[in-house]
Design goal:
Blueprint lengths: L1 H4 L4 H8 L3 H11 L2 E5 L2 E4 H18 L2 E2 H8 L3 H13 L3 E4 L2 E4 L3
Antiparallel strand pairs: 1-2, 3-5, 4-5
Helix pairs in contact: 5-6
């Protein structure tokens, strides 16, 4: 689970596996298996699904959460949680209200 929520960046992947892996990453991104959170930061769709599940549970119980609270709940660093939360905001799962996030109402 930790690897789903703290994946290596594209730079780390290329450094470890070589330039040829860029085609594979492009293919997996186009297929929807990998999601660009921000430049150079990818997450597998299963990681996003797991994060949504865990955040949904937390926010249904608590009603809202700061970045710090959500980071702790997901056991992620700010490096990953901020882009993830921004991605979830953009895609209508959560919405930011000043310094807290809530589940987006339908």
């Amino acid at each position: 689970l930790a690897n789903l929520l703290t994946p290596p960046g594209i730079g780390e992947i290329v450094a470890e596996l070589g330039k040829g892996v860029e085609k594979l990453v492009t293919h997996l991104t186009e297929c929807g298996d990998l999601i660009h959170l921000e430049e150079g930061l990818l997450m597998h769709r299963n990681g996003i699904t797991e994060a949504q599940k865990r955040l949904g549970e937390y926010l249904r119980i608590h009603g809202k959460g700061t970045t710090s609270e959500l980071r702790q709940h997901l056991a992620m660093t700010r490096k990953y949680v901020v882009p993830l939360l921004e991605y979830l905001d953009r895609n209508g799962f959560t919405e930011r209200h000043e310094d807290v996030r809530v589940l987006k109402e339908d």
